[in-house]
């Protein structure tokens, strides 16, 4: 398949790498395949072993390449909310004393001015979201090109990530044999597919239940209003099962996937399954309810910690409720547990395209959808940030059909100002927060109480 028609989204998670491939030949986004591969090179959303991560990336991309019968050279990679920092940015340039028409080069110059003026040492830009352009300091426009101006000013939000983390991600992709085209913010990518227009405007919570971390991002008025991270996820649930049932982690993961329920109310003690126990010659029979109690205890603790920050920011008052994504949300009854814990409506999102019908691929699908929908201005932004890495090349002569690959409807703002976000982005401390802080939480009886005390 012609590589120029392919758009490949890469989601580098703590426990697995996900890749989604879409074909854009017909001037529309058509997902043609997806694949995942386990990895041990990550910890809490960050790379701790480049070679192991590179091997997992290569495995996932090889799988999806064979599945789609296509050749992959470049990818677009999502950057998780835990690595993002937001800065207000603005730039100002002169166009000409007599006034002249604004072109692509002028837009690039003012973008460079805004980005360089706000960039902090130790951080690299990954995206810039323009809020407005000002012609001659007065006229507010979305796209200033072909307009006559003496000066051009831009206001927007600069999204950055730590230089060291970005270096590790790029190096892992390169060692896997591929190149990264550009980065996109994962929470906005997920919002582009998991939330409808009303939810993005009036507000909703994206709860991403990952393997190594759990993140909650509040989207309101097409902006990131708040984000919190808990450094526990599906792998911790697997570890709990391993410890309590005295079985290997591989066995624990297997029975979690095959027999696990997030909500004990959906289980029965009559339904039993064999578990290979360390030191025992014969498997032991365990019932679904017992396994579910183990799973539920850890999930409740994670939700308690995440919920504290969401409650403090009045996120539960937003009409969109909670939209759940991530591989761990595949456990049956997860939406019921979230609904009962947060006392809001909740639903699980999974892509409805063939081959993507698993919450695991929500972020990867969001990355390709977000990248495909980029507007002309967004592409100019990327050409400033990433230089020659971006393909195909843009020119003022390109017609709308050729530019379809990068078009996105322009909004006046997609993200909130830095103070509203950055003061809460140190959310990894949520992992250490007091799980008893929510005085509205109902006390559990019996086994649930036991497991909560056990894990505490």
From TrEMBL:
Coiled-coil blocks: none
Record NCBIfam families: ftsA
Region ranges (Disordered): 414-442
Residue ranges constituting the SHS2 domain according to the UniProt record: 7-194
Gene3D superfamilies: 3.30.420.40
Protein's cellular compartments: Cell membrane
Entry keyword set: Cell cycle, Cell division, Cell membrane, Membrane, Stress response
Domain of life the protein comes from: Bacteria
Gene name tied to this protein: ftsA
Entry similarity comment: Belongs to the heat shock protein 70 family. Belongs to the FtsA/MreB family.
Membrane listed as a keyword: yes
Entries under SUPFAM superfamilies matching the protein: Actin-like ATPase domain
Subunit structure: Self-interacts. Interacts with FtsZ.
Role description: Cell division protein that is involved in the assembly of the Z ring. May serve as a membrane anchor for the Z ring.
InterPro entries: ATPase_NBD (IPR043129), Cell_div_FtsA (IPR020823), FtsA/MreB (IPR050696), Heat_shock_70_CS (IPR018181), SHS2_FtsA (IPR003494)
A cellular-component GO term for this protein: cytoplasmic side of plasma membrane
UniProt key word Cell division: yes
Basic and acidic residues bias (residue ranges): 431-442
Gene source species: Lactobacillus hominis DSM 23910 = CRBIP 24.179
Membrane topology, record value: Peripheral membrane protein
Main location group: membrane
Protein known as: Cell division protein FtsA
One GO BP annotation of this record: FtsZ-dependent cytokinesis
């Amino acid at each position: 398949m012609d590589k120029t028609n392919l758009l490949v989204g890469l989601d580098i998670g703590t426990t697995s790498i996900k890749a989604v491939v879409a074909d854009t030949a017909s001037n529309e986004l058509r997902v043609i395949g997806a694949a995942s591969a386990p990895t041990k090179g990550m910890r809490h959303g960050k790379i701790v072993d480049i070679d192991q991560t590179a091997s997992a990336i290569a495995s996932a991309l090889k799988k999806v390449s064979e599945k789609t019968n296509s050749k992959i050279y470049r990818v677009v990679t999502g950057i998780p909310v835990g690595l993002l920092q937001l800065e207000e940015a603005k730039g100002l340039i002169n166009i000409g004393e007599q006034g002249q028409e604004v072109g692509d080069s002028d837009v690039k110059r003012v973008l460079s001015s805004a980005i360089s003026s706000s960039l902090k040492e130790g951080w690299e830009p990954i995206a810039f979201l323009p809020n407005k352009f000002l012609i001659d300091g007065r006229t507010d426009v979305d796209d200033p090109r072909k307009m006559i101006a003496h000066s051009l000013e831009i206001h927007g939000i600069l999204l950055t990530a730590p230089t060291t983390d970005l270096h590790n991600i790029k190096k892992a992709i390169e060692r896997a044999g591929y190149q990264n085209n550009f980065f996109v913010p994962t929470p906005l990518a997920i919002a582009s597919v998991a939330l409808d227009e009303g939810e993005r405007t009036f507000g909703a919570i994206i709860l991403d239940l990952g393997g190594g971390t759990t993140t909650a991002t509040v989207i309101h008025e097409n902006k990131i209003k708040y984000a919190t991270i808990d450094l526990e996820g599906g792998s911790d649930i697997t570890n709990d099962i391993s410890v309590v049932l005295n079985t290997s982690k591989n066995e624990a993961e297997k029975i979690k996937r095959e027999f696990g329920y997030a909500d004990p109310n959906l289980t029965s003690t009559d339904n039993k399954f064999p578990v290979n126990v360390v030191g025992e010659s014969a498997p032991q029979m365990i019932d679904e309810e017992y396994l579910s109690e183990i799973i539920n205890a850890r999930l409740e603790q994670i939700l308690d910690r995440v919920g504290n920050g969401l409650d403090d920011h009045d996120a539960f008052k937003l009409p969109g409720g909670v939209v759940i994504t991530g591989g761990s949300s595949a456990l049956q009854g997860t939406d019921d547990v979230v609904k009962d814990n947060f006392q809001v409506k909740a639903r699980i999102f999974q892509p409805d395209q063939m081959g993507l019908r698993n919450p695991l691929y929500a972020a990867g699908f969001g990355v390709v959808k977000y990248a495909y929908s980029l507007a002309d201005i967004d592409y100019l932004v990327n050409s400033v940030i990433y230089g020659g890495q971006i393909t195909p090349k843009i020119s003022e002569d390109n017609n709308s059909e050729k530019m379809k690959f990068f078009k996105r409807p322009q909004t006046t703002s997609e993200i909130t100002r830095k103070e509203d976000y950055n003061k809460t982005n140190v959310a990894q401390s949520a992992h250490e927060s007091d799980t008893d802080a929510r005085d509205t939480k109902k006390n559990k009886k019996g086994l649930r109480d036991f497991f909560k005390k056990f894990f505490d």
